[in-house]
Amino acid sequence: MIKSSVSNCPVPTEQQPLNEYEELKTSWLFRDCALNWREHIKKMLWIWSLSWVLAGPVAAASFPPHKHLAQFILCGALGASIGVILLLVRLYLGWYYVSDRLTSPTVFYEESGWYDGQTWIKPEEVLNRDRLIATYEIKPILRRLQLTFASLAGMFVAGSIVWHLL
């Protein structure tokens, strides 16, 4: 964990926004968001493929593949996308939370429990450092996740059009 450059910071180490960012950045679930586009797409396709394990049998029960192949594929693809959407929501909310804590001029923290919360006003140097990290490290990740959401929405629209044409 990185310690704050301000020695009089009353915020517990694990609740300091910079340390929350470092922890999130190294977490197995969240670290893949910082990969290049190709790796990011591969990970999303991998999750989507694994989701087919659940979505495939449900789609086959509704639309037997030997009778309604196109409907089976579209229904299965939609069902498998739910796993990707849930993952994307979790990733987005985690990164957004840390970004919000970094860009905020104050830090709410708990000293020993939920009943004794305090607020610390960041010194200017800490606020500037945190905002730089949020701008140059986290904002691109949030944009990538937003574009992934938009791509999924576009695929849903395309799938709906194809469904209505069948």
UniProtKB/TrEMBL annotation:
PANTHER family: PROTEIN CONSERVED IN THE GREEN LINEAGE AND DIATOMS 27, CHLOROPLASTIC, PTHR34214. The lineage of its organism: Bacteria, Bacillati, Cyanobacteriota, Cyanophyceae, Nostocales. It comes from the Bacteria. Keywords: Membrane, Transmembrane, Transmembrane helix. It holds the Pfam family CGLD27-like. It comes from Tolypothrix tenuis PCC 7101. The chain crosses the membrane at residues 45-63, 69-93, 147-165. InterPro entries: CGLD27-like. This is Ycf36 protein.
